[in-house]
Amino acid sequence: MSVPQTTFHDGKSIPQLGFGVWQVENEQATPAVAKALEVGYRHIDTAAIYGNEEGVGKAIAESGIARDELFITTKLWNDAHKAADARQAIETSLEKLGLDHVDLYLIHWPATVKYGDAYIEAWNAMQEFKAEGLATSIGVSNFHEMHLARLEGETPVIDQVELHPTFQQQELRRVLDDRDIVTEAWSPLGQNKDLGHEVISRIAAEHGVTPAQVIIRWHLQLGNVVIPKSVTPERIASNFDVFGFELTGDQMAAIAGVDEGNRLGGNPETADF
User: Helix 26-39 crosses helix 233-240 at what angle (to 10 degrees)?
Assistant: First the structure.
């Protein structure tokens, strides 16, 4: 199955469905990513702070898949926002991944509580990395409108944020749309807490699919880029098998109605890490 592509404002594109490895141990990352690549994923999302770039890189190297068929994302951690630190960080990530470039490099958090406006310096450095070919496209993660407004030069191509049925971030999504920034969802299943919601369960039964498949399909139909994570081979495959059905307008509206403002991760405006 060919995964739909979402085009960035810089002309590059990203597979709309990817495979995330947050909270996956380094030794687990290799078999998990290998399985993901086997079932058809070509977009892999990792980060320096995850501690599993080497495991991801090993799976990539052993896959035999041509580099230009893969889309690899990693992220700059909060303590490396100064320009020299950011350069060391991307070079370290590339070494661990075994790559000469990533397709997408993100500032992981604005981290203003602890590091002030250093994320602005990081953004300037990332534009240099793009010009040098170390990253094909550059973006951000966990940024709100107030953070985006202070960036200079290029506009981020994407903002990766917590987003799932009970935390839909509708206002932020509107802001991103207005700025031509793609929305990408982390914790897209609500860390599995949204799977048992009665609306999701009912729709899953109507289609004869799993609740996770319903939620992933919902993200895709909203236009989000989505990166579900699992280390279970059967779930990795199942989460990719979402192109054989389509949610109706009524079903999309029903899921829109389950938003509870249920944030599970840190608030970018108050996070102190």
Answer: 40
Query: How many domains are there within the chain?
Result: 1
Residue 261 forms part of a structural domain: no
**pLDDT value, residue 1:** 67
Q: What's the full length of the chain, in residues? A: 273
Residues 6 or more apart in contact with residue 125 via CB below 8 angstroms = 83, 86, 87
State the residue for tokens 């009912």. 202
Q: Is 30 contained in some domain?
A: yes
Q: Which residues are catalytic?
A: 50
- For 212-268, write each residue's pLDDT tens digit: 999 999 999 999 999 999 999 999 999 999 999 999 999 999 999 999 999 999 999
Residue 264 lies in a domain: no
- From CA 209, how far away is CA 242, in angstroms rounded? 9
Instruction: Say which amino acid occupies 159.
Output: D
Spell out the residues 6+ positions from residue 138 whose beta carbon is closer than 8 angstroms to its own: 104, 105, 106, 123, 126, 127, 129, 130, 154, 156, 157
Grouping H, G, I as helix, E, B as strand and the rest as coil, residue 215 is helix
**Contact 15/5 with Cβ under 8 angstroms?**
yes
**pLDDT range class, residue 2, cuts 50, 70, 90:** confident
Residue among 253, 190, 234 at smallest CA distance from 216: 190
The total of other beta-carbon atoms located within 10 Å of residue 192's CB is 13
The 10 Å Cβ neighbour count of residue 121 is 17
pTM value?
A: 0.97
Of 37, 32, 34, 42, the C-alpha closest to 5 is 42
Supply the CATH number for residue 47's domain.
3.20.20.100
- The residues that bridge with 73 in the sheet, in sequence order, are 45, 104
Gyration radius of the chain's alpha carbons:
18
